[in-house]
Amino acid sequence: MTTPASLSALVVIPARMASTRLPDKPLALIAGKPMIAHVIDRGMAAEIGPVVVACDHPDIKAAVEAAGGTAVMTDPDLPSGSDRVRAAAEAVDPQRAYDIVLNLQGDVPLIDPEAIRAAFDPLSDPAVDIGTIATEIRSEEGRTDPSFVKTVGTPIGERRLRALYFTRATAPTGPGPLYQHIGLYAYRRTSLDRFVSLPPSSLEKRESLEQLRALEAGMRIDVGLIDSVPMDVNTPRDLEAVRAIFASRVSNPS
Question: Which residue, 72, 161, 185, 187, could crosslink 223 as a Cys pair with Cβ 3.0–4.6 Å?
Answer without folding.
Answer: 161
